[in-house]
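I'd like us to work through together how a protein chain folds, taking it slowly. To get us started, please write out a protein record for me. Label the sequence line and the structure token line clearly, so we can match residues to local backbone shapes. Once you have written the record down, we can walk along the chain together.
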Amino acid sequence: MEKAKNTLRKILIFPFIALIRFYQIAISPFLGSNCRFHPTCSQYALDSFKTYGCIKGVWLSGRRILKCHPFHPGGIDPVPDNNKNHKPK
């Protein structure tokens, strides 16, 4: 069951990862380094999809991209830890 779940997860995130990699390889080099965050927004999106899957990956990536504007200071903003064993207090 777990193997099937992982396979389905990989199938669902593949189109997103492919689009992000296409952007990183084919488009981003022509735009120059404009991201005000570290890691870049595209790397953040890749990390979020690989860490959290499709639904939360879309949410985290979209939220990050919406923060990328001239009035936000930017800075270091990594993908949140995926600590499934963490229990809120």
